[in-house]
Amino acid sequence: MTDREALLKKISTYQFAVLDMQIYLDTHPGDAETLESIGVFKRKLAPLVEQYEKKYGPLTKNANEGNNWRWIKAPWPWECEEDA
Amino acid sequence: MFSYQKKLQYPINIKTPNPKLAKVIISQYGGPDGELGASLRYLSQRFTMPTPELKGTLTDIGTEELNHLEMIGAIVYQLTRNLSIDEIKAGGFDDYFVDHTTGIYPQAAGGSPWTAAYIQSKGDPITDLHEDMAAEQKARTTYDNILRLCDDYDVRDAIRFLREREVVHYQRFGENLRLLTDKLNEKNFYAFNPSFDKKCFDKGE
User: Domain ranges in chain B?
Assistant: First the structure.
């Protein structure tokens, strides 16, 4: 696993925890404890996304900064990094 | 509206191409119990749903299924990359290859193209929820069958993640069915269609 993939996996882990709890909240909207846990994970997630996008390029089109359209740069999510 | 993140929900890094396995796994792309049908089923059914919980659940699970569709596409793509013609023939991939080369096409393992006949959007939330719970179990069985046919660790790891999500989604749909029936006539859940006979239903909003 490359450094990029390792960081992306960390991001995915926190994102997944948030998503799983959000879908749980759809049927348990009054569960304040879960809402609070989502906040904790989101706070851990934000600096990782920032670090990733600075180093490897935008995860969303809107995060593209500077005078270079880095959005289309390889690798795309389905590509193996060693093939690129 | 939808927006795209340039990443998979769960990472996929397959080291060894395997066209034979790709032909089986493509069923979860465009087969009868696959992720394309799952996402279109939920994202279509949600429009007429009567409760806030159901509108949220179908929107969010339907969207998650699109992540899973992308993951299956990535698995099939990586399993069929850099193949030689000899490997294609030896892997029994020639019948897929003749129509699609190594393009990703929504079809069942047996070759039938994806069809909207795989899904229903009935406009009755009790009926739709029973279809949704059955769909999650059918997808879970398909993933169990894929795990029986597959000994590649990289593929199994991702398939196990997807299988687990079927179990969780089934749970969420079951909760929605209970929440819905709690709001209906307890002596006869089927007296009315809560999406169509709107005056007979307390929306609880």
Answer: 19-183
> Which residues share a beta bridge with B196?
none
What letter represents residue A43's amino acid?
R
- The ipTM value here is 0.96
Residue type, B139: A
CB distance B42 to B54 below 8 Å: no
| Best residue of B2, B4, B7 to probe chain A, by most A CBs closer than 10 Å | B7
B155-161 contact pairs (CB < 8 A, 24+) = B155/B14, B155/B18, B155/B21, B155/B25, B155/B75, B155/B79, B158/B10, B158/B11, B158/B12, B158/B71, B158/B75, B159/B25, B159/B75, B161/B10
* A1: amino acid identity, one letter: M
Sequence length of chain B is 205
CB–CB contacts below 8 A, A to B:
74
Which pTM was predicted? 0.96
What architecture (CATH level 2) is domain B19-183?
Up-down Bundle (1.20)
pLDDT digits (tens, 9 = 90+) for B64-75: 999 999 999 999
